[in-house]
Specification:
The chain has 236 residues and is of the alpha/beta class. 49% of the residues lie in helices and 14% in strands.
Length: 236
Amino acid sequence: MLKIKVIVIEPENAGNIGAIARAMKNFDLEELVLVNPKFENIFEAETRAMHGINVLKNMRVVNNLGEAVLDVDFIVGTTAKSGMNYNVLRTTITPELLVENLVNINGKIALLFGRESFGLSNEELEEADIVVTIPASNYSTLNISHAAAVIFYEIYKSRQHKKKGAPRVSSKLEKEKALEYFRLILKDIRYSSFKYRIAERVFHNAISRAFISGREIHTLIGVLRRIHLFLSSKNK
């Protein structure tokens, strides 16, 4: 079963949180987590939430992103600034492409939204498995609650057509294991240190965007492990 957690990093406006809670209620989402919120009075959030008030009442507040994502298998970051072909950290997909893959997944996914003023930092985007952006005309930056509502709606639509017997999505730990062997292989082949981080990020992006299943990731880990063992024995 697909589970969704909505995480907002350092929100600055309580009203926006209320609007996000209202949109979550509209589209059957329940779990909301705030990381180090910058507002003190929750009143405006409660006023804007309307029938989403239960989402606010059950909302958790944590000190850092690490705390917020402890129990998730997959992290979806959001940004208005797509890196196109030049910045692999900000290589993005559309909400439509995201939900095409979500429909076949069992696991827990975090939707990560940034600050109203400047969004997610590069360090926070590093934590994301994939990054989503919403195409818009003229001015590409949407209000955070509007952007959230668009993504919630697309997920809601996909859930209405969810296939039975969906495979378990690979866990964060499993993807990290595959990445660990990929790093070892880069060292085995003496890959350029200048390009090392780019190659590492590209591999991370590839296995994340594929929404690879638990069975697939185990096979991939096995193959990468054997490649590493073969290369390291040759190097000796």
